[in-house]
Design goal:
The protein has helices at residues 17-35, 48-54, 60-68, 95-105, 129-132, 172-187, 203-216, 229-238, 250-263, 302-316, 319-334, 352-361; strands spanning 5-11, 38-44, 71-74, 110-116, 137-143, 153-158, 161-166, 192-197, 223-228, 245-248, 273-275, 281-283, 337-338, 348-349. The protein has 365 residues and is of the alpha/beta class. Helix 8 packs parallel to helix 9. The structure holds 3-isopropylmalic acid and magnesium ion.
């Protein structure tokens, strides 16, 4: 067995972030022990935790240290917008601005969010059995460094009327590189890409569709389908089985990935990887920082643990180790252990730490 040294940046984040990241680190340590890898963590500050120390959500130091790591594992960031002092700051100094700047600084244009319905969690799924029978397994590939999130924005008074503007801009290069990634991923899965846009209204979507079609020519083995975003929102609950790889721009991806997570039963199950052209990646649960349940040892750590598995797979090519984590998660679910968000009749309720420990016990070589 080849032993590796993994240099991992850790952003514990805000709210439930520190609790769930601690469990993911526990699982990684167990993997290191069982498979003989040395894991070195560097703690990095970002989001609210960084504001508390430095007054800003992301420092140059964090960006540099993240760049020096092989990969970064992160919990969620942000607080309660109504009560947290972080939201008294100007928008560009709030926690979320740090996350967006980090994604942009590291050029993490490809955000992968797999949504899988685990057989064991069918009871937590809000859809009818007739729709979910046999499960579903899709991955959303969300463009992450363009579009509305990064266009110019302004709020000003025009002729005495308050007016706000957000620009949605995409270049053909930005569309091409993420589209290519979608086809590559589909090749390793079931060979289908559904590209989501609003081409019946938006210019940016018409360009999106044109470029995706150009890229598709290089992948004749992959089936390409276009779908309007409103229809996609509907199809996700009507017939989620039809999807393999969903390719979409930043804002649509933000919305559709929350919806996709909910049809799997809980946002607490959804991992994500944000990748650039290199092996580097930022891995984070798709859900938020859930400040209302922070510190109570009830948050579901599985999304973060599965994000750590994605990290081993994509940034370190440690497929066996990643499989071991995913299998351990399945086994714990099969045995009936549940955090409260995925609880169902007859299951055994456990807290955040117990869930992490249970998963650790099933990590085997
Ligand atoms: C996500 C989150 C972020 C986003 C927020 C926290 C800025 O909702 O990762 O989906 O909108 O991208
Ligand atoms: Mg979101």
């Amino acid at each position: 067995m080849l032993s590796m040294r993994l240099n991992i940046g850790i952003i514990k984040g805000d709210g439930i972030g520190p609790e769930v990241v601690t469990e993911a680190m526990k699982v990684l340590d167990k993997v290191g022990e069982v498979y003989g890898h040395e894991i070195v963590y560097t703690q990095l500050l970002m989001g609210g935790a960084s504001i508390d120390v430095h007054g800003i959500p992301l420092t140059e130091e964090t960006i540099q240290k993240a760049k020096q790591s092989d990969a970064v594992l992160m919990g969620s960031i942000g607080g309660d917008a109504k009560t947290s002092p972080w939201y008294q700051l100007e928008p560009e100094k709030r926690p979320e601005a740090g996350l967006l700047k980090l994604r942009k600084s590291l050029n993490l244009f490809a955000n992968l969010r797999p949504a899988v319905l685990y057989e064991e969690l069918e009871d937590a799924c809000p859809l009818k059995k007739s729709i979910t029978q046999g499960g579903f397994d899709m991955v959303i590939l969300r463009e992450l460094t363009g579009g509305l999130y990064f266009g110019n924005r302004s709020t000003s008074e025009v002729n005495g009327v308050l007016t706000a503007c957000d620009e949605l801009l995409y270049t053909e290069e930005e569309i091409r590189r993420v589209a290519k990634r979608a086809f590559e991923i589909a090749r390793k899965r079931r060979g289908k890409v559904t590209s989501i846009d609003k081409a019946n209204v938006l210019d940016s979507s018409r360009l999106w569709r044109k470029i995706v079609e150009e890229v598709a020519v290089e992948y004749p083995d992959i089936q390409l389908e276009h779908m309007l975003v409103d229809n996609c929102a509907m199809q996700l609950v009507k017939n989620p089985k039809q999807f393999d790889v969903i390719l979409t721009e930043n804002m649509f991806g933000d919305i559709l990935s929350d919806e996709a997570s909910m049809v799997t039963g809980s946002i607490g199950m959804l991992a994500s990887a944000s990748l650039n052209e290199t092996k580097f990646g930022l891995y984070e649960p798709s859900g938020g920082s859930a400040p209302d349940i922070a510190g109570k040892n009830i948050a579901n750590p599985i999304a973060t643990i599965l994000s750590a598995a994605m990290m081993l797979r994509f940034s370190f090519d440690l497929n066996q180790e990643a499989d071991a984590i995913e299998m351990a998660v399945k086994r714990v679910l099969k045995e009936g252990y549940r955090t409260i968000d995925i609880m169902s009749d007859g299951a055994i309720e456990v807290g955040t730490q117990e869930m992490g420990s249970k998963i650790c016990t099933y990590i085997e070589a």
